[in-house]
From TrEMBL:
<comment type="similarity">
    <text>Belongs to the CCZ1 family.</text>
</comment>
<feature type="region of interest" description="Disordered">
    <location>
        <begin position="259"/>
        <end position="290"/>
    </location>
</feature>
<protein>
    <recommendedName>
        <fullName>CCZ1/INTU/HSP4 first Longin domain-containing protein</fullName>
    </recommendedName>
</protein>
<feature type="compositionally biased region" description="Polar residues">
    <location>
        <begin position="259"/>
        <end position="273"/>
    </location>
</feature>
<dbReference type="Pfam" id="PF19031">
    <property type="entry name" value="Intu_longin_1"/>
</dbReference>
<feature type="domain" description="CCZ1/INTU/HSP4 first Longin">
    <location>
        <begin position="16"/>
        <end position="125"/>
    </location>
</feature>
<dbReference type="InterPro" id="IPR013176">
    <property type="entry name" value="Ccz1"/>
</dbReference>
<dbReference type="InterPro" id="IPR043987">
    <property type="entry name" value="CCZ1/INTU/HSP4_longin_1"/>
</dbReference>
Length: 512
């Protein structure tokens, strides 16, 4: 999905977070606003936007108590809703602009909201728990503002904000991309994981191993794996460190095909000195110089010993001493120290429970020393084996196909390389985006069916440029495919999908 610039900051895109449990008394309405972008809009406009959103949520709950409003399509705008936590809502409002190719998939926008919230949970904990600790919500607003603005910086291109568009239809957020490894390499990886876990001295430690931007192994729960994998690809992998950007977005890979479609100019908006809403006159300029900003660019680097270092976490305001980063696990709600070792294309992340480290930073340094002594040679060996079996950025390219394969049960995805996807024409991508929208609707309907069974789907359509655009959904797996050089007949396209399924999907989408 992509967005293009528009003339008006206030109309291109608006993003807000509000709490329905706050600001219910007359004169206290501003208290419900936790975040609003653009921050320079008058409070009256912010309240108008949130009041409309609140009204839509309340109205739709009358008819659907279990699932309130998800999207409202107005004449000029799309309103996309996501209930991040009970009664805490995130809403993005995007202006429709056909001339600027402002064509997006609603579920794609909602997954952006889900992703930024999941990352916030990992570093700060739940918004509700923060509000309970500080009812005035000043620091909560400050943390949200800093975090979300740093997150949105990944969508900047030429000072224009670009959210996902139809050009991102062959990618899937909230999934991980796995590296396929042979038996011998897998044994070496398992041995490495066991050695590092023994060095941590805690049975509750966890690890995540990546090669390039692909996951090799994890001991975390699926949700925690997705969160840490997402952050690693955004900020920690060799590509993110060297290029200052991630491989998540086709837009940030400099593809000429990635045209902007909606979104206001950010320019100075990325500066944290700009005012934002806060009750009692709180502003974004209030003492942010020492705030923890895990999504800020260029704050991680590789140390001489191979461990990644950062000054994002500091011992105390004004201190020059950096401390080990920490995150919250979603499954256990346990706070963990985050340590990352890197050798060439290999990134090994291990997590140690904060409660198990007695001597604080000295204890972490002791663990790192043990890892260097007992596991560094194993990491070199694993990196060498994985490199030998790695086919490069186009390793998962299949000649003649542009595809996305999603395993919803295991939260995995695999797709054609971004460089290959960029060769598709606009007509093909538009047709694919519309097809995915249809699948999203059918999946949403099936989710609320009384029978509780997953719905199998097969859709095959012809784009304006005569490309075949195909979707198959069965038993928790989804396949999306574009065949631009296919024969005229549907039989040819069906046969192509059959061959792909048999060779790369273990026959999951075969008709037999």
């Amino acid at each position: 999905m992509g967005l293009s610039s528009v003339a008006s900051n206030s109309e291109g895109m608006q993003l807000c977070i509000f709490d329905l449990r706050r600001g219910q008394n007359e004169g206290q309405e501003l208290d419900k606003i936790l975040f609003f972008y653009p921050a320079d809009l008058p409070f009256s406009t912010q309240l108008s936007v949130i009041g409309l959103s609140e009204g839509l949520i309340t109205f739709t709950r009358i008819f659907s108590p279990e699932a309130a409003c998800e999207v409202i399509e107005a004449e000029r705008h799309s309103h996309v809703f996501f209930e991040a936590e009970p009664d805490i809502w995130m809403v993005v409002i995007v202006e429709k602009n056909k001339e600027a190719e402002a064509i997006w998939r609603v579920e794609g926008l909602r997954k952006v909201l889900k992703e930024v919230h999941s990352l916030f949970l990992m570093f700060h904990g739940s918004i509700r728990s923060l509000l309970e600790k500080e009812p005035a919500a000043g620091s909560v607003r400050s943390q949200l503002y800093i975090f979300i603005m740093d997150y949105l910086s990944d969508f900047l291109s030429s000072k224009k904000l670009q959210l996902p568009s139809f050009r991102d239809s062959l990618k899937e957020r909230a999934t991980v991309q796995m590296l396929t490894v042979g038996r011998e390499a897998a044994i070496e990886v398992q041995s490495l994981v066991r050695v590092v876990e023994s060095c941590t001295g805690s049975q509750s430690s966890h690890s995540l191993l990546l090669f390039q931007d692909l996951l090799v192994s994890t001991t975390l729960s699926p949700d925690d794996t997705i969160n840490l994998f997402t952050y690693a690809v955004l900020r920690l992998t060799p590509r993110a460190l060297s290029a200052g950007l991630s491989s998540w977005s086709y837009l940030r890979k400099g593809s000429a095909a990635s045209t902007a479609v909606t979104g206001p100019t950010m320019g100075s908006t990325t500066s944290l000195s700009e005012p934002f809403h806060g009750s009692r006159g709180t502003s974004a300029g209030d003492d942010h110089s020492h705030a923890v900003r895990p999504l800020q660019h260029d704050r991680w680097s590789k140390g001489r010993d191979g461990f990644l270092i950062t000054d994002i976490w500091q011992a105390e305001p004004g201190s020059l001493v950096s401390v080990t980063p920490s995150i919250w696990l979603q499954q256990t709600e346990e706070k963990m120290y985050l340590c990352a070792y890197q050798h060439k294309s290999l990134t090994f992340i291990f997590l140690i429970p904060v409660s198990s480290v007695i001597n604080g930073e000295q204890g972490i340094l002791a663990v790192k020393q043990l890892v260097l002594e007992h596991a560094s040679l194993k990491m070199l060996k694993v990196e060498e084996k994985l490199s030998k079996g790695w086919g490069g950025e186009n390793a998962y390219h299949v000649s003649g196909y542009r595809y996305l394969l999603v395993d919803g049960d295991r939260n995995l995805s695999r797709a054609s390389p971004p460089g290959k996807v960029a060769t598709l024409t606009k007509d093909s991508l538009l047709a694919l985006s519309k097809l995915r929208e249809e699948v999203d609707i059918e999946k949403s309907r099936a989710k609320w069916d009384n029978d509780g069974h997953e719905k199998d789907l097969e859709i095959c359509t012809r784009a304006r440029n005569n490309a075949w655009v195909i979707s198959q959904v069965t038993r928790g797996k989804e396949l999306y495919m574009v065949l631009e050089n296919a024969n005229e007949t549907l039989l040819y396209a069906s046969d192509a999908v059959q061959k792909f399924s048999n060779r790369y999907c273990n026959g999951a989408f075969s008709l037999d």
